[in-house]
Amino acid sequence: MGLLIGTSFNTWTHIFQAQAQGERHVVPISPQPIHNRWFPEGCGPLINLPFKHHDEFISRFEAPKLRERVFHFSAESIAKLKAKANLESNTTKISSFQSLSALVWRSITRARRLPDDQRTSCKLATNNRSRMEPPLPQEYFGNSIYVVSSEATAGELLENNLGWAAWKLHLAVANHNDRVVRQWHKEWLESPFIYQPARFFDPYTVMMGSSPRFNMYGNEFGMGKAVAVRSGYANKFDGKVTSYPGHEGGGSIDLEICLTPDTMNALESDKEFMNAVSESNPLY
After folding, report:
1. Model pTM greater than 0.85?
2. Higher model confidence: residue 216 or residue 124?
């Protein structure tokens, strides 16, 4: 969804800036969005949903009392996390974002003070486009995402190191392929459901949403580069983490984290986590 909306805004601002420069008629758009729809074999554009009343698929999600804070991670800090995770796992395959996500998963789990045997999960929103065979073009103007997940007990997660958690997340991403995507669609068509936050997330989940790859600061409407990127109230719950590129670019990342007040207080006192957090420019 984020890629779809981001493409829309980037295209809009491209048109806006071109018109401001005197191009009043034809404004070339690059890259151009592709509107052709993708459906699994044997499935047409019309899908019958097995609902007889809107109460079966609409619910009003009431979020608990939450605290929200944005934490900034410089490119240098993230590079250190990546190097540490790969060294501890004796590999070079763990990405920067997987390393950062592992830190967040471990730190929030520790801040929640869960029993050792409590199962916890870290979920990452994943783009399906490049994983399809043949791949969907990056300009595909549709919602083609999936949520991959890794699980561990709180004891396992905290007894092992950063690299152990990051490797689990790496495997979850690496194993997400065309077969998995098509199997998910097959199961959904056999038993359709409507996405509802309360159904998919529990108090022991960390959900890494959005992406630092989205060109948030490329949306410019004549007033200069945005000061910061923030999201609204919708779809917020305990453990929701929204990722954005840092204002200075260069691989920096801002994480907008939502937690219960007590858990946020504990996270702000977590040494492993706060040692990785960077100071952002106060002007931003």
Report:
1. yes
2. 124
